[in-house]
């Protein structure tokens, strides 16, 4: 068993950013520059989400009629997706259709077939679609989309993370590790904490605690900063393995460090205490939820 306290030090440390002092004129942005710029961006994003939401509602209304669905995408989707050529509208549509993954993939496939020539696909669009395919247990499609994006020179860490997530969701630890090793060999991409969180999650789900803890050691050795999800996946893994001491130890580290427990953490602790029969501690956590 590894000593999780070694990890707590890294999470508790704040990152120091060194920067030179800006001139007075540059230190305080004027209302005509960055302030309005950020406001404009926020308004643009809100407008995009609203436009996508309208399209989503119309697609859901025709979800059982393939021809009408295609016509709706042609009538409403073309201008919308071209308007946001960075792929953000497609990614947002897939996000809003999370509860209807089959419909999400239909919309993505239409965009892929009809608009790729005029508005080239982005890595973010492929990444989101790979995750959706994984949740539908269509791993052949997930691998196909990954290969297609790679052939278009769209390889990115998020693309690898998405394929790893697809394998994780389906409990395929070996394939998940294989994609991870490919990522580490890439010259232009490097693993992030999201990558390592995926590994921790898949190992925890399969009760491969040694592998989970080895991944934790690698994070520590590489001086990669964990996040709340890192600890939550650790707690979930220990709960799956009925390792109550490690569950509580990880929770104590979170409370003592800078990464405080969130709603997901407390739900995990409730589940853990319920399984272990510690009703008094379960009541304590319940008051925090």
Automatic annotation (TrEMBL):
PPR repeat intervals: 227-261
Pfam families associated with the record: PPR_2
Gene Ontology molecular function terms on file: mRNA binding
Lineage top rank: taxon: Eukaryota
Keyword Repeat assigned: yes
InterPro entries xrefs: PPR5-like, PPR_rpt, TPR-like_helical_dom_sf
Residues passing through the membrane, by range: none
Keyword Repeat attributed: yes
Record key words, sorted: Repeat
Similarity comment: family membership: Belongs to the PPR family. P subfamily.
The protein's name in its UniProt record: Pentatricopeptide repeat-containing protein
